[in-house]
Specification:
Blueprint (H helix, E strand, L loop, with lengths): L15 H8 L7 H12 L7 H4 L9 H4 L14 H6 L2 H4 L16 H15 L7 E3 L7 H12 L4 E3 L4 H9 L5 H18 L3 E4 L1 H10 L11 E4 L6 H10 L5 E4 L1 E3 L3 E7 L12 E4 L5 E7 L2 E5 L5 E9 L4 E14 L9 E7 L13
Parallel strand pairs: 1-2, 1-3, 3-4, 4-5
Antiparallel strand pairs: 6-7, 7-8, 9-10, 9-11, 11-12, 12-13
Helix pairs in contact: 1-7, 7-8
């Protein structure tokens, strides 16, 4: 999916959804149709993965036929994360992908993510140039995404050595994150000074730490926009960053993870309905994944617009099917956005009753 659009092209955000469907035609397929297609793919002996084919006879229903749309995925119940952790990666690889390069998760969605995010940057007039990636690289999907994005316009990626697993281990053992954060900042400063990247990709938590250590405003290093994802910062921290350190720099945030992709930022524009004191919402493009805000005490009851609940996600990719996974986050459900005609979430924060995944670290 290599785009021929110039990297400097600017799109009208009001027509962003049409542009996304033009670049990624699959975004025009309705969620029910896509769900039925994924059931045929994942539960056919010729194309399905060993992981799901081995479970087909124990489900108590027939995925091909009984699952006639997205709502019927409730038949699978809640997905147990322990099953995913226990599975061998090759069990998850669909038979339909035999003979193709083996990459966990990134088999199909990397190209989609690049095209979608590039289109969002173009709508803001920010695509193009070199990238400083203050993010996990190597085996992490985010690193592959940033590299693919820069490749789409022939830009360079200047990456630091960042392993979020290291700092999480330190936090669980009782040590603080400060030494590792200093290690990341020390790698980043010379690249900012020497390479003058147009885009900085990082996490909100690291952006706070970096901004407080910079001797001068970020825009003086050539940075036009900061693109963040991962951990959240508080509203007070976000206001502080915008007021004190991000003058002249656009801040584009996303919400999501390796399994579901990027929920795109919807700004506070005319027609956007946001909770009080919230500056933006997040909207995950269907049909590759879907995000639902549910009652924490009843994960099958969808929260009303404006109500806070726990985030439940379903991944519907040819290379990965994960139904009804309860995330470690809570959020407020929002309605559609003028740029994205599907529901979103806002005011995301960690779900406090999930101690297993409580450690956020710096990512």
């Amino acid at each position: 999916m290599t785009s021929t659009a110039p990297a400097t092209a600017r799109r009208d955000p009001a027509t962003l959804h049409a542009a996304l469907r033009e670049r990624v035609p699959e975004l025009g397929i309705d969620l029910d149709t896509w769900t039925r297609r994924m059931m045929r793919w994942h539960f056919s002996p010729e194309t399905g993965s060993d992981f799901w084919l081995a479970r087909r006879d124990t489900l108590g229903f027939e995925p091909i036929g009984d699952v006639d749309g997205f709502a019927a995925l409730r038949l699978f119940g809640l997905f147990d994360k322990a099953e995913l952790r226990a599975a061998h990666p090759r069990e998850l690889l669909p038979r339909g992908y035999r003979g193709r390069p083996f990459r966990v998760v990134n088999v199909t969605r990397l190209a989609y993510d690049v095209e979608i995010y590039r289109t969002v940057l173009e709508a803001r007039g920010l695509a193009g140039g070199d990238i400083l990636a203050m993010t996990p690289m190597g085996p992490h999907a985010y690193g592959h995404f940033v590299e693919g994005l820069a490749d789409s316009w022939h830009g360079a990626v200047h990456a630091i050595d960042f392993d979020p697993r290291w700092v999480k281990t330190a936090l669980r053992s009782g040590a603080g994150a400060e030494p590792y954060t200093e290690h990341l900042i020390a790698q980043t400063l010379p690249l900012l000074i020497g390479e003058r990247p147009g885009l900085l990709f990082t996490t909100p938590r690291l952006l706070v730490e970096l901004a407080m250590r910079l001797p001068r405003p970020l825009h003086t290093y050539g940075v036009r926009a900061v693109c963040t994802g991962g951990t959240s910062c508080t509203p007070a921290e976000a206001q502080f960053l915008r007021a004190e350190h991000l003058q002249g720099v656009r801040w584009i945030d996303t919400y999501g993870n390796t399994l579901v992709g990027h929920a795109l930022q919807g700004d506070a524009v005319p027609g956007a309905v946001l909770p009080p004191d919230v500056t933006h919402s997040y909207h995950l493009p269907p049909p590759f994944a879907a995000m639902t805000v549910v009652d924490p005490d009843d994960p099958w009851r969808e929260a009303a617009v404006g109500e806070r609940g726990r985030v439940r996600v379903t991944t519907l990719l040819e290379d990965l099917f994960l139904p009804n996974l309860l995330e470690r986050d809570s959020a407020v459900r929002t309605g559609p956005h003028p740029w994205f005609p599907w529901d979103g979430v806002a005011a995301v924060r960690p779900y406090e009753d999930d101690p297993e995944d409580a450690v956020e670290g710096v990512y």
